[in-house]
Specification:
It holds the Pfam family NUDIX. With 234 residues, the chain is α+β, with helices and mostly antiparallel strands. It has two domains: 136 residues, Nucleoside Triphosphate Pyrophosphohydrolase (Alpha-Beta Complex); 80 residues, Orthogonal Bundle (Arc Repressor Mutant, subunit A). Strand 9 and strand 10 form a beta hairpin. The radius of gyration is 20 Å and the shape is elongated.
Length: 234
């Protein structure tokens, strides 16, 4: 019989990287850490995996505690296991990233954790290896957005092409050609043009579009090569 009593203790946590879009900018949700070490500094939302939880169940619980949300897009990113990543104990963290529409869920954020949205370019100093987690999540998001219409998870039910372009530019930290972008996105056949326009940002206004959800499920690869080479955009 294998004797596990001689093995060193290893704690397992989850951390959630939550990206949000407010119609103009791609942002990141952070909390103020409420305990030592690093009390008062900005942090990702996280927690320990409970004995009867899977990693995904733990991440779902943590996400709901902060945002009140369930059934949002969430994907496992990576296991961060550097022995010295946490000064208190040997703690491995399974990172997940999520995508939400800020305007739809802003009022559901828990006040308990003092959460705030930050522009990605203005993210404050973070605890431990949380910056590495965010950088890796953004790279993963860039890769997936180039081959799948995953970014629609960040958009409201109806949106304009300028808003969609702003979202892609935020993800890739790049300026995209307006005419070329519109042509490519409309060629996917995933968007349904609406009759009404958004006129708050210009007199002429931009038509609203909606995602054809049936085609979204059937043609999930319609954005293949939508961004030809994401790495060249930086």
């Amino acid at each position: 019989m294998t004797n596990h009593s001689r093995q060193n203790k290893l704690l397992v946590a989850v951390d959630c990287i939550i990206f949000g879009f407010d119609g103009q900018e791609l942002k990141l949700l952070l909390i103020k850490r409420g305990f030592e070490p690093e009390k008062g500094r900005w942090s990702l939302m996280g927690g320990f995996v409970q004995p009867k939880e899977s990693f995904e169940d733990a991440a779902t619980r943590v996400l709901k505690q902060l945002t009140g949300l369930e059934d949002v897009y969430m994907e496992q990113l990576y296991a961060f296991s550097n022995p010295d990543r946490d000064p208190t104990d040997r703690i491995a963290s399974i990172a997940y990233f999520s995508l939400i529409d800020i305007n739809k869920y802003q009022q559901q954020l828990s006040d308990e954790f003092h959460a705030e949205w930050f522009q990605l370019a203005k993210t404050p100093s973070l605890i431990f290896d949380h910056r590495d987690m965010i950088d890796m999540a953004r790279e993963k998001l860039q890769y997936k957005a180039a081959i799948h219409p995953i970014l629609f998870e960040l958009l409201p039910d109806k949106f304009t092409l300028p808003q969609l372009q702003s979202l892609y530019e935020g993800v890739y930290d790049a300026v995209l050609d307006k005419r070329n972008f519109s042509r490519k996105v409309l060629s996917t056949g995933l968007l349904v043009k609406q009759k009404e326009k958004e006129k708050e940002t210009s007199k002429k206004g931009a038509f609203y579009f909606k995602l054809d959800k049936k085609k979204y499920q059937k043609k999930f690869n319609a954005f293949l090569n939508f961004i030809p080479n994401p790495h060249n955009l930086k």
